[in-house]
Amino acid sequence: MVNLVYAVVIAIVMVAGFLFGAANQQQVELDLLYTQYQLRLVDVAVLFLLIGLLAGFLLTMLFRIRRRLRRNSQQPTSTS
């Protein structure tokens, strides 16, 4: 049942994203350090959404690995 709720929520978000993309065809200029790009507004929004998701995933993995290493180093080792 929970998987069905997740699927419905994901479908709603995807439909909203497609509607946002269809409604925002405005061209914007993305200035980087040495270059410029002409992109649609929705492309810039998706780009920064994906960068944010990737950064969040990497930070989460970093903290999980640090916590696991800290927990393993605090456990007493048995020597026989």
TrEMBL record:
InterPro entries associated with the record: LapA_dom (IPR010445)
Superkingdom of source: Bacteria
Limits of the Lipopolysaccharide assembly protein A domain: 24-74
Keywords, ordered alphabetically: Cell membrane, Membrane, Transmembrane, Transmembrane helix
Transmembrane spans: 5-24, 44-63
Pfam families reported in the protein's UniProt record: LapA_dom
Keyword Transmembrane in annotation: yes
Name of the featured protein: LapA family protein
